Amino acid sequence: MTPNPPWVQALKPAGPQGHELLQLERDKSSVPVAKLSEFLFTKEAIERKRRVLKVLESEKVFNKNQNYFAGRVDRFETALARAKRLRQLKVQHGWNQEDSIVANDLISEPGPYGLHESMFLITLRDQGTPEQHELFLKKAENYQIIGCYAQTELGHGSNVRGLETTATWSPEDKTFIIHSPHLTASKWWIGSLGRTANYAVVMAQLIIDGKPYGPHPFVVQVRNLKTHEPLENVHVGDIGPKFGYNTMDNGFLLFNHVKIPHVNMLARFSSVDLSTNKYVRPMSASLVYGTLTWVRSHIVLQSGSVLARGVTMATRYCAIRRQFQDRDAPQSEKGETAVLNYTMVQVRLLPLLAATFALHFTGQGMMRFYAESQKKIHGNANTASADRGAGPEETHAGSDSLADLHAASCGLKSLASSIAAEGLEVCRRACGGHGYSSFSGIGPWYADYLPTTTWEGDNYMLSQQVARYLLKSARSVKKGEKPTNDTTQILTEFLARSDMGAAFDIIGKDEDLVAAFAWRTAYLTFEAYKHRDEEKKAWNDLLVDFYRLSKAHSQYLVVKNFYEALQSPSTTDVLNEETRTVLHKLFRLFALNTLEQESSEFYQSGATTVRQIILARTNTVMKLLKEIRPHAVRLVDSWDFPDWQLDSSLGRYDGKVYEDLFHRASELNPLNAITVDPYPESSVLFKNDKSRDFKSKL
Amino acid sequence: MTPNPPWVQALKPAGPQGHELLQLERDKSSVPVAKLSEFLFTKEAIERKRRVLKVLESEKVFNKNQNYFAGRVDRFETALARAKRLRQLKVQHGWNQEDSIVANDLISEPGPYGLHESMFLITLRDQGTPEQHELFLKKAENYQIIGCYAQTELGHGSNVRGLETTATWSPEDKTFIIHSPHLTASKWWIGSLGRTANYAVVMAQLIIDGKPYGPHPFVVQVRNLKTHEPLENVHVGDIGPKFGYNTMDNGFLLFNHVKIPHVNMLARFSSVDLSTNKYVRPMSASLVYGTLTWVRSHIVLQSGSVLARGVTMATRYCAIRRQFQDRDAPQSEKGETAVLNYTMVQVRLLPLLAATFALHFTGQGMMRFYAESQKKIHGNANTASADRGAGPEETHAGSDSLADLHAASCGLKSLASSIAAEGLEVCRRACGGHGYSSFSGIGPWYADYLPTTTWEGDNYMLSQQVARYLLKSARSVKKGEKPTNDTTQILTEFLARSDMGAAFDIIGKDEDLVAAFAWRTAYLTFEAYKHRDEEKKAWNDLLVDFYRLSKAHSQYLVVKNFYEALQSPSTTDVLNEETRTVLHKLFRLFALNTLEQESSEFYQSGATTVRQIILARTNTVMKLLKEIRPHAVRLVDSWDFPDWQLDSSLGRYDGKVYEDLFHRASELNPLNAITVDPYPESSVLFKNDKSRDFKSKL
Fold it and tell me: The whole model's pTM is what?
């Protein structure tokens, strides 16, 4: 760190200072920030965050100063040090699972123990027998072995059945032979495998007596527990740099006829019988099904806060950044205007601010829905945590509600992660030139988040599952079967009015606004039904329609969840009038702005009049932007991100944007330690480090 | 480089090999690739590329092997070495300006001489007097001084008038005092300044006798020519890492009352009179105006090829990548399907493929339009290079055509760079998981391109200039003035039919398709006119409408340029029937797909029927995708990107996707040289490099 010269230290930003400008913003609104935060996250969660943050801030290894500067090897090294220290802290402070999650959120970078602590432990726990728990899980929980979950291959992503790695049962010596028959069989993208793990749960095609039984999980040691060198006939390493996620060592893995004992096949659901050498059939797959649904619902819940980080940074900065005078402003107001006052900035940022709440409430709704359906399946109350949150109690009928939940989790995972990823990029660009600096904090966060649009079901692929479910529902409704859940309900209502059409007052009535989204979903569902079932169009020719259908259905679910959350007693009893009014405006902004962006489908379905959509855009939305604008900073404050977590010059709570940008650039930047020889004919590159000589590069 | 073990070296990808799959693709079409390339770029340009490529490939310093792995300091160091070597090669081979541009395109990374070789030289040349040319330009051309162009400040981007840096005329000693009054006055984002430049053209507010005269250019030395250390009272350095562009040393710069001589104010257009100490008024600003128009038109031309790189990589990879079986495929076709066969992939990639051609022809049209208007302004034929290319000759009436050109360049810069930037991200995601690897080549290219959406006029800001021009045109048409260019022509035609409405057959007739875009522009123009001139709405309340208007107008221009290029004799005489048929399908795909995405505006303007838009999407576009699909690989081949330029595992001409991914990951990846100690209680991080000890990090 090189301090700036005294005459530079004496300089301040021109005009009103950042902290003054943010104070002005906070004075414009009286939304009770702390109260709203508690409503969103619970008081306990906020206290937990403060407590864990205090510990992390005091540890040098978690200092983020060099995060944006360091290259891959250094970043990985620091991430490893952090992972180790975090594990030590957990033991030392007796942190539970929730504390650990909060710590990871605050650190905000994927770490080398990431897959060990999630999928490796979960898979051992869920799919292992008691004997296997003793053998593997205990050691894994004590970090005596470090593992990962090796499913995806170089040539195979979403299609698990296409995996090439084989596990061939050898009855002579009662072992499995794990083998990679081709280069494309190489495991690929496997988190924590590249450099860190010495064990892997490997998904491989089970083969008994020449017959394939599909992919199954096998526990395979890949590195020596002492030397950490790869075992014989195992080729393993890191797959190289990525667009983001570079603190994680995603790895590759190839096997050359590697033998593992019988006990290494995870045998809770299916196995090979030792005496008969026969395959033992699996139990129902509903448990795995449930896990995936939980994972996707969790992505929906996270998406709100993922996006909120970007919106927080952009909103605070746009309240400070001033550019040009308002053309129509009176001569007396001579200064430049905060860019947040420009409607073109508002129309980009404020609907995203609305989306953060929409997604948060939807995610909470999904988690509640999941808990309820688990309760029904398992027939006991233990699994259903009585989540605090918005939304009226609903009743769901058994398996129908499970299928509904599954489809909703697929569609919403796709929609929510797309909104968050694309929204973050909108936030970055709304920050103008400085959004491109790593110090903005938005770019690195966006880059790390992007894989969420691909993993746990590619966002495009997933839409087919939603369409399949809606087609099934349409068939049942067409047959005259009674509605059993919300989806069949809205389809039935649509069909009942097919001779009458609709007349939703989307601007005048909130219920009509929600109903218009339901109508569009139903319209598109029956269009798809007509194409597929009546006109017998090829599945592949309908993928674009299916994607639109899935998006429409998921948008309906978000609008509905947002609306219901605002009606719920848990909301109306807790929040004051002003807060509820602002949240209601956010609901309307989110719904009407979404409707306007998808207006052609609303026209075509006859859900709305052309006139109301034009008015919604030119009138209602513009008015809502103006009304929400004064609350923007307080609303992002209520997301309660500590500066330490954001690690952003632009998004600082105190508004010291320019001071922080300058400090990081001039005082923390390692590139400024080198002195260049700039002349083309000189072979010296860095005057103060002659080891980097030009000639050696030729 | 660590070679793979022999058993790994023996492995091949499963199933048909990449080169076989691409050969099958190339066999499906007979579009003459070389012929089409020559048509797009000219034979000379292609030969030039081959010649320069040969030189670069043979130089070790340009080897790209480590580009994706290296950290910031190492990347900058290599970029500096490359910049120096490139300069040496230029001298050695006598390369002209065009050769140099091609070399930079092939190297494809911003370099430390970037701003010296562009804005520094251009500004000295254009704005300097002969005396100043002698003093500064000559030295700069010989690389005895290395410069940059310092305009943007920490607190000031697009609004040049808001710059804070001052240049105060001191009549006593006939000097200017350059000063940064606040922290926000720090120059920021200045390319080549961070570490490389020793001179800068500084834009500063000229102050004479206490009176401000606006921003003017001053030549200021910032570093010692021998030691390269900053001069006294100059604080200069690199601004730190960015989302991309990290081979460039964007810099900051602060002055503490630095004196420079009178001759350092670039004085071709305005100056301070040495004897009277008075300001000498500037000449017309039309020249600068012209330069910006040229720069923007060039961005439009580039955008086609920028996007084409991503489309090339994604198209080739999607032809090789296979996933799932087609649900409706007969049992006999057992294998997985190339993802390019999925309509959901086609509908994302093929309209972008169409856009590459649309933007290329539009860019060529803009460059021709620019040359013509320069010819008119300067009244001689020298400046108008007789560009080969598509499009009929048009006549433009003097200043009207200049204003039209200016507006078109603003709108098209905004639209084209947005299409290219967003399109690249679509290409990256179309590659699924592997798109996230740096080896895909798309992510790094996207990250480097992104600033184009902000510089040379922020894409949102620029739309106001287009709207201003269209409003002015509407006023003239409303007054009954005769149309003087295409814009006033389409407005006049719209007005003439305002009592009749329109009936464009967008599916049946190409001319109607173009006319529907013109109609929508005119409709939105008069809507804006009504809001602003009649209803007196505030400018700020109309920014969203203006942005839509600008987009609509620019989309019309792209559709029109594409259409005219296909009609031009220079196209019809050169290309064979099959090629013209395919290009015509691409035109229709681009136009109809764009129309469908913006359908609500087409409905509202009454340009089209709802029925035709539905049919366009569900029928025409889907059919076009099918028809274009077999030509996709040959079409991207015609963009003629050498593998060396693409530096992409996924986009290789020979289809060796998996071999290349594996080679880079396992054999070139420096992270695989470290051996981790994975246990949390151990303080060792890397077993083979104990200097990186955990304890030192605590």
Answer: 0.94
